[in-house]
Amino acid sequence: MTAAGAATVPPGRLFVISGPSGVGKTVLCARLIERFAPNMVFSISVTTRPPRGGEIPGREYWFWSIEAFERAIAAGELAEWAQVHGHYYGTPKAFLMEHRAAGRHVLLNIDVQGGMKIRAAFPDAVLIFLAPPSFVVLEERLRRRNIDAEETVRRRLANARVEMSFQKEYTHTVINDTLEEAARELEDLIRMHIQSGS
């Protein structure tokens, strides 16, 4: 009990979802937020890349200038940040601290570099790696999206090989063969950690 007599709220958990481009992170994260809201919120990353068609600032990402991002790095305002595909991406520290203190769980969709930094800063974070059934399937999915130039697809595939090598560093791996099965497995893992508190 606090001095005021109110029960202390246990801090919320951090859940990190990482995986290569095209593996289904965005869709599955949206499912998880829908399933666990209002007790779970989505951490909206900041990035210096330009918005893609249909993206709205504050929904998918906050879009910052390179200068603003570098000022935030210098001020220590980011829990993690990295350069991916030639652009900065990062997670504002204040957002995580505010929601955890209120007892809400936070879901982060970040790359493996960011995942390792979150693990170092928050050792109780649960890291889940989302993997494709095979590299061939991943390439098919990336090309089927038809939103990137060939050069970008090739760069994403090259980065995917590096990202896949980080699987062993994650608490769990979920293979996204079918969306429904992957969503169910993710829900079960998150529910298990929330209930156990570990």
Automatic annotation (TrEMBL):
GO CC terms, sorted: cytosol
Keyword terms, alphabetized: ATP-binding, Cytoplasm, Kinase, Nucleotide-binding, Transferase
Record bears the keyword Kinase: yes
Stated name of the protein: Guanylate kinase
Domain Guanylate kinase-like as annotated: residue spans: 12-191
Main location as per UniProt: cytoplasm
Organism for this UniProt entry: Candidatus Ozemobacter sibiricus
HAMAP family from the UniProt entry: Guanylate_kinase
Recorded superkingdom: Bacteria
Keyword field contains Secreted: no
Single annotated GO MF: GMP kinase activity
UniProt-listed NCBIfam families: guanyl_kin
Reaction catalysis annotation: GMP + ATP = GDP + ADP
Known function: Essential for recycling GMP and indirectly, cGMP.
Ligand binding (ATP): 19-26
Pfam families to which the protein is assigned, alphabetical: Guanylate_kin
Subcellular location as annotated: Cytoplasm
